[in-house]
Amino acid sequence: MSAARPLTTLRTFAALAALPLLLTACGYGAESTDTGKQAEVAAGAKKLSADEVKIGYFPNLTHATALVGIQEGLFQKELGGTTIKPSTFNAGPSEIEALNSGSIDIGWIGPSPAINGYTKAAGKNLRIISGSASGGVKLVVDPEKIKSLGDVKGKRIATPQLGNTQDVALLNWISEQGWKVDAESGKGDVSVVRTDNKITPDAYKSGSIDGAWVPEPTASKLVAEGAKVLLDEADLWPDKKFVITNIIVRQAFLKEHPDVVEAVLRGSVKTNAWIDANPDKAKASANAALKAESGKALPADVIDPAWKSITFLDDPLASTLGTEAEHAVDAGLLEKPDLKGIYDLRLLNKVLKAEGEDEVDDAGLGVE
Q: In what order do the strands lie in the sheet containing 156-159?
């Protein structure tokens, strides 16, 4: 197996530094927060090989497996006497740094920071051990200015950040229309305006952008302001599925505490099954967790359509991770990475088999 190719240009490094805001519904800033929440451990519950497991995630809907699983005690049930120490993050770089430093052991994160973290460490830092969510990304536009896909040409379309997953997806879609845009400046047949999700709704209301290619719930927030959905990114992918959230682990923790990692994966699989069986309860649970962790619940006109557009699943959709990396390379934002070994799905497949579910595939990007 060859080492991951180093990032050799300042331009590529800058773009990769931007990658991690991807796919987060509210990825603002780069600070992490120790939630201070400790799950209740049942009396007499037996500890696994570690006293605690430090779990990181973002307080947004695409990380609802973590939100709901912790809120409902589904992870703690599988961990027995091993306690969960949760931390929330607002951006990919801080979560990758926390993983590198050992401040967290396992994290929910998007594909671009996972790719970035893996390649920058030459494959020696993290592994993707499961999928978690698919979808939840839309092109929403001002219906007075844009009535068809062709009308996007010449307009100002926001993405969360240079080089992030949605930015790359928009650049790729623009290229497929035969239009030209300079990836770095965002100038061309479409003006790509890099705008923090936190202020995108205000930018839309002020008229400084004509639309946005954004994740949920930002897309639904814009719709609540009068925008319309012009394109659901899921429609561009085979089977309408593409990775939006993965579960990653420190390789050292995986090696030292495979029983703990397996227990977390059981919790994730069972949480996703519970979400699928109880969508309304799960939506309410996720919103309660958001209110507890970010101070504000989402209104019904935002969470209802946003929730419907996200699929929670165990399959990491590995082939789509490779495609997303190819799109970044084609846009000139990433040197071709060597992603062989980024996945280790052995424990996940063990859990799925025990649950009577189909095993999942790593698309040739798994450990040997």
A: 191-194, 156-159, 211-215, 137-141, 228-232
